[in-house]
Q: What sequence folds into this?
């Protein structure tokens, strides 16, 4: 393929080798793929325009920039002057007139200061320092009469309010920035990634202006080829006369191609073909999105299907099995925007009659925008009026949600916006309310006598006396460690008063609760059974009183009182069996 | 707000009440929200153009349509003639000239037949039969001189090859179709939903042409306001002079507004304001997409972290704990397109040294396109060359994947494309290979003597004799039901030879495996412990030999041989304890 002609209107450009051919694709996650001459330097030319437009938006604000440069495609060629009748406002920032007007808006007191600002901006996008190609710059400067004419025309219409020549000069400089296809790929990916360079993690442009930059690329980036480009390739794009071209698929990836021969419209021939092939091959057309989009509901279950890690008595478990359906948990995921959140809200409202407690779990949510916050606010408001409770969990990484609720709820914020760190704790809180309502007169689970211990069920008073003589009473302060992971397992604990929790370390600072026990329950039994070192840490949640049986006494019981040992082991099996059934039921929820 | 003027150039339109105001938003899932006069009929006018364009693409193919009508925005007003110099091809199908050329491409032998085709097409989009407003049609027909002039001009350039008047007449008819804002909302949502009406579930246009329809709406739909519209509102849109306007956010939703007063460009004043407000409020700008997009990896775990439901011996469990890291499972989710799949593939390749068995689970995948298939093919190809095994599970609902692999793999298809229905079975298959490699000389798990039963561990030969006398040998044919759910639990089973599996019914046709046991293991013990009816069904996987102990003998053992009963209960507790640890470990994976 040897179609197209290397640009010659700037003498410096004519020296390019027409065979140079480089392609680079960079994902919004920062993975780069490159082939060919992707590290061959060339000048950015008109591809600078959208980036400088973004900087102008940051420097002057959208309103002022729009008063100087429009956003309408012209259907005309790149060097058309296309000023709006009457106002003299250039039609859009992608034609030269609009680009010169845009460049004039860059902040800075002196020419060198403004150039430095421009180069720093390009550097943030590319993730490395970029510099001018001086030869091309001189060449542009010497031959840029048409652009100087445009500058004076803009001055005539008061679009430029001072001497146009420094702005035209800065424009020549921005066009002469030396880049590679790899650089442009990263720059395009930065736009795809909401303005943050996905490799360095540094912000190149404020996120709110990215859509404006991409909009002008989308409607005007390919000059009089823009409509056909959108039709066939379907990504905002920009080309330059040195033979570069970039395309951006928002949220996904950036593409850059370098190949100097140009078609009659000034676009790289191979650049267009590569973008066309990639778009077709990889289904990158912006308007060809799968429907109806990802589901924001990762998992949905009730308090009857999955319980908190608080170990319940059989009576309590029965109550939760019966009434736990009043607790509805939505585990959300992905990017929460209007449409994805609307589907969640729609589902909640459709089931509102069943729901008394709603838990919204944000652990797997990547991002959330204001329209999603508004919908969650509406849900909270509606459910509160119906006397339902809404709990938000794992929402610390989404400060926008808290801020939004604070503003909207005002003085009702503390009462209504219940945000808990852990799903497990939220579930436990809701369960407690369900159990209180179902079993208003149940035994106080905070204390138990040996006759009430779950492992001593069906024991005769005489057997209780025998086994009680083997128990040693021990007390612990709140937060005291009762068992350490790695300890030898030589004791079995019966909880007489208070609560204890089992934790495993997640990392050096955080730990995860595996279980919480209350009065009457046995703990520390598993390591005793399989004679393994303690696998987790057990801590007193409150002041705690325990009855402790040594492993020796437990073992000896078989020869001294086999009948008691058998009852004890039967109760132990029953207890393990119940826990196994509970965990199996939990597991089924995740399937 | 009383800005704008009701259109008067067609006398019929002038009768509209300027206060009529209806809004309808329909999600790509088919949920409709409407306010105001959303059921007030009015004529579709130019909003018909993109829909007719879609039908022309279906009738004539993209290439032929493009030879008659371009895709470039003109920056000119709706009634501009804008023919391409030389070819006479109208610049785009959204201006009247392009629309008339498009209408002429609709298939059908007679005028009424073509009108019927058009009305059927509109009806598929709207989900109900639509009809002409005859008064408006007469009115259009009587005053449409300019459009007739355009028709003759198109005939002059051979864009129309026959008498232009029937096509112009059909164009007047398509503009006179009577709709409501609700209808237009559903029609827009149909485009957002890839061409399928989300309420009726019926296809209105082939999915492959939706991007083309949306492209011309995006670049040319709002006439000389298209650029600013894309910049501020950012959705493909189309307006009509009766005061209707639609906007589409692909994959997410459609919006329709009806309010007759128009601005100088012929767009509904309130329509634009509503779209602007909704876009801002709900963050609907097409180019403002969160980055880097949803993760396609729902969950990732190894065969050391989570095992299949086949119950393993302690020795086998140890081997899996040690070597299970060679099995890597990726649970995928959402819409798999290039960028989301690339992230998965990138992760697989980065970990390829650890992976010997790769399981790709598609259960939670909503859609998958060809570029995703291509990437999975690349992974399969690369891993096969490295002598790794790839298994695909739950991929039945994605026939494209199978077809793609069949074409690409050719005669290697049967060997390389391993697709299993269940993740659990895939995991078991991989585990078996890992265990075979780790324990080449392990005991044949297909049969066991009573001395080898897990519950008789540490029994003396004399104790084995005693307990064996209580066992009753029983055999089952392959697939025979051993235990039915709901049965009374009065027996304990020791598996001497063969394999059995525990199933629960998922629905009337399918069942789910909870566990598989092999020689030496106990089953049916849980219901015996908690004296509950059988909770699941147990079936012989092979020919099976069991030793069965009655509940009566089990209970009596405590008084006749307390020492044996204690050992039995200790082994039972140990066995339950191990299963509880395994299930807890599984549960941690899902957290």
A:
């Amino acid at each position: 393929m040897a179609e197209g002609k290397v640009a010659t209107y700037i003498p410096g450009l004519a020296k390019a080798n027409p065979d140079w051919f480089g392609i680079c694709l960079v994902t919004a996650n920062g993975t780069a793929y490159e082939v060919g001459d992707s590290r061959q330097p060339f000048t950015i030319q008109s591809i600078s325009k959208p980036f400088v437009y973004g900087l102008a938006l940051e420097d002057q604000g959208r309103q002022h920039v729009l008063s100087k440069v429009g956003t309408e495609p012209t259907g005309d060629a790149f060097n058309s002057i296309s000023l709006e009748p009457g106002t003299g406002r250039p039609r859009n920032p992608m034609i030269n007139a609009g680009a010169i007007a845009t460049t004039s808006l860059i902040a800075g007191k002196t020419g060198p200061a403004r150039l430095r600002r421009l180069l720093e901006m390009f550097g943030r996008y590319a993730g490395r320092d970029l510099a001018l190609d001086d030869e091309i710059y001189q060449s542009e400067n010497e031959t840029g009469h048409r652009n100087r004419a445009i500058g004076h025309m803009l001055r005539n219409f008061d679009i430029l309010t001072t001497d146009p020549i420094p702005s035209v000069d800065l424009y020549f400089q921005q066009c002469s920035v030396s880049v590679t296809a790899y650089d442009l790929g990263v720059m395009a990916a930065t736009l795809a990634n909401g303005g943050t360079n996905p490799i360095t993690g540094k912000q190149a442009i404020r996120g709110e202006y990215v859509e404006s930059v991409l909009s002008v690329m989308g409607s005007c980036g390919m000059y009089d080829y823009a409509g056909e480009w959108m039709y066939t390739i379907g990504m905002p794009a920009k080309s330059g006369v040195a033979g570069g071209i970039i395309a951006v698929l928002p949220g996904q990836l950036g593409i850059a191609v370098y190949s100097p021969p140009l078609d009659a419209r000034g676009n790289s021939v191979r650049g267009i073909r590569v973008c066309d092939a990639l778009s077709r091959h990889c289904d990158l057309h912006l308007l060809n999105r799968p429907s109806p989009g990802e589901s924001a509901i990762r998992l949905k279950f009730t308090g009857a299907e999955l319980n908190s890690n608080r170990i319940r008595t059989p009576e309590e478990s029965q109550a939760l099995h019966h009434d736990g359906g009043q607790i509805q948990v939505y585990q959300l995921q992905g990017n929460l925007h209007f449409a994805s959140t609307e589907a969640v809200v729609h589902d909640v409202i459709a089931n509102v009659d069943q729901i008394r407690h709603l838990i919204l779990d944000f652990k797997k949510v990547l991002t959330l925008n204001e329209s999603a916050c508004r919908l969650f606010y509406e849900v909270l408001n509606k459910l509160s009026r119906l006397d339902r409770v809404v709990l938000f969990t794992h929402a610390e990484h989404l400060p926008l949600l808290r801020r939004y609720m604070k503003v909207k709820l005002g003085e009702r914020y503390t009462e209504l916006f219940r945000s808990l760190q852990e799903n497990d704790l939220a579930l436990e809180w809701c369960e407690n309310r369900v159990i209180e309502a179902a079993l208003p007169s149940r035994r106080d689970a905070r204390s138990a006598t040996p006759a009430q211990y779950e492992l001593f069920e069906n024991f005769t008073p005489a057997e209780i006396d025998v086994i009680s003589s083997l128990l040693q009473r021990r007390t612990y302060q709140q937060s005291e460690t009762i068992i350490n992971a790695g300890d030898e397992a030589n004791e079995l604990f019966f909880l007489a008063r208070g609560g204890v929790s089992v934790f495993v370390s997640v990392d050096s600072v955080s730990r995860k609760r595996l279980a919480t026990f209350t009065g009457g329950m046995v703990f520390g039994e598993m390591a005793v059974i399989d004679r393994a070192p303690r696998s987790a840490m057990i801590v007193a949640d409150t002041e705690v009183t325990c009855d402790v049986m040594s492993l020796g006494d437990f073992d000896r019981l078989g020869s001294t009182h086999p009948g008691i040992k058998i009852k004890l082991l039967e109760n132990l099996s029953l207890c393990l069996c119940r826990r196994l059934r509970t965990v199996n039921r939990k597991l089924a929820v995740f399937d």
Chain A touches chain B through 99 residues (CB under 8 Å). The two ends of chain A are 54 Å apart (CA to CA). Chain A has 21 helices and 20 strands.
